[in-house]
Write a structure and sequence with these properties.
10% helix; 192 residues; disordered N terminus; mainly beta
Amino acid sequence: MKTAASVALALVPLVLGASAGAQPTPAPAAAAGPAAPAPKPATELDTFKFFLGKWKCDGKAFASPLSPTEHSVKGTAESKLEVDNFWQSFNYEEKKTKEHLGLKVKGLWGFDQGSKRFVRAAIGNHGEWDTASAPGWEGDKLIWTGELSGAQGRIPFHHTFTKKSDKEWTHLLELRLPDGKWIPAEELSCKK
């Protein structure tokens, strides 16, 4: 009897250990319903489709914090759809001359469905960057309001794009000086 009791006592930790480590069998997962539909690009972006493609630009830079003298400017612009058509990337380049430093800008613009505003962010080859937003088109004009930040500090700006036709648009960049006065920095016309 002593041997049977010793064997029983020796088995107790094994039985208790096995039952303590035992995990309940999980219930079968509920059948998943249909996946939520994928979000779609905002229809407001359709108004930017005319920017798609390659453009040649011609205009002038005015004397401003970005340029000491007024002079002519030539450049190119290109825009294409990105990230499943939710955004447009844009590349803008102005040719370097003895009067003009040249400029290379890369950016994205799109429509923020939460704030119901057009938004953009851009970077340039002089270390500058900007962010801006616009409430929408007013007739043939879209006015971006934002801030340019770079070697000159932070400069508030308005960047007005005007659609002249399906084959032409203009852009006017205006800067706010420290005294609060707005001045034109450059204005170019871009054509296909």
